[in-house]
Design brief:
Largest sheet: 4 strands, antiparallel
Structural class: alpha+beta
Number of helices: 11
Strand order of the largest sheet: 2-1-3-9
Helix content: 25-40%
Strand content: 5-15%
Number of strands: 12
Order of helices and strands: HHHHHHHEEHEEHEEHEEHEEEE
Number of domains: 2
Distance between the termini: 57 Å
């Protein structure tokens, strides 16, 4: 596979594109489709992507995820063509208008209700009999009943939240129905934080991590004006991003998709449409920066 040798023509491109790309799955699929179009075998494509992933250990990509995207690219007749983005791309004009209104982080803090504790956030966002998925790190999700979390004195040490209720402590993964496995209890077919384990969409999280905090605050305000839904919470991650949590449980699936398209037009990360995607736990603790994830804005339900 000389044309796709990582040490030659595509080394710089692969290394440059891997880290900034928020949608690793789509990136794997695009590269796999390119490899297929250039005559590479699936095994050669896996070796290329595995080597590239190993050069960036801060973003863990398991073998089965690489193979799923390779199989998808090899069975998709249009895999060697660019995949149409499912969401509106950032609109420079809309972003410029949003920034011209002068909204800042302080603007949100000035109209906030008194910020709750982490326990009060969990109690307000989930019902007594529901499972809630949290993580100290993104790779260590745990699903427990809401009341079990509320009795946990270490709740404030958690960093991540799946903003939708879960069906149970563990659920099936995408691999369980994609691979038609002989062993239905294979380890990679089950996990606590999976889309199939989400009981229903209740919240959508909006994040912009490529802009300044004040610019992010302005984009959140523009989304509120365009979509007509106020945020439930705006949380500072303790680093470079604001996470705005919006209640969308009253919207139909079509209306929720339309609303999220308004957000991506201002530059919101489209990956956060995934119902099991982690967001920052309001009031939790950022283990990487050792900073509290401050609730800048809160509106009680």
């Amino acid at each position: 596979m000389a044309i796709l040798n990582l040490e030659r023509d595509y080394a710089a491109w692969l290394q440059r594109e891997w880290l900034p790309n928020p949608q690793v799955h789509q990136f794997l699929w695009r590269v796999a489709g390119f490899c297929r179009a250039n005559g590479a075998s699936q095994e050669e494509t896996f070796a290329l992507l595995r080597q590239c992933a190993d050069r960036h250990p801060d973003r863990r990509v398991p073998d089965d995820e690489i193979w799923r995207q390779i199989r998808s690219a090899w069975t998709d007749r249009g895999a060697d063509q660019p995949r149409r983005p499912p969401w509106p791309p950032p609109d420079p004009n809309k972003r410029a208008r949003a920034l011209s209104r002068g909204v800042t982080v302080q603007s949100w803090s000035a109209v906030s209700q008194p910020p709750p504790t982490v326990h009060e956030v969990i109690q307000a966002c989930f019902r007594e009999t529901e499972y809630v998925c949290l993580g100290v790190s993104a790779s260590r999700p745990v699903c427990r009943m809401r009341e079990d979390w509320l009795r946990d004195p270490a709740l404030g040490d958690y960093s991540y939240l799946t903003p939708n209720p879960m069906r149970g402590a563990i659920g099936l993964t995408k691999a369980s129905w994609e691979a038609s496995p002989e062993d239905p209890w294979a380890e990679d077919h089950w996990g606590p934080r999976t889309d199939l384990n989400v009981a229903g969409r209740r919240f959508l999280n909006v994040e912009f991590d490529q802009d300044s905090l004040d610019d992010q605050a302005a984009f959140i305000a523009a989304i509120v004006q365009a979509g007509g839904i106020p945020p439930r919470a705006i949380t500072w991650s303790g680093s470079k991003s604001l996470h705005a949590l919006f209640y969308v449980g009253h919207l139909s699936p079509e209306s929720a998709r339309h609303w999220f398209g308004l957000a991506t037009a201002y530059g919101a990360d489209p990956q956060l449409w995934t119902p099991s995607q982690f967001c920052r736990l309001p009031g939790g603790f950022n283990q990487e920066t050792q900073q509290r994830q401050t609730i800048l804005y809160w509106k009680a339900p």
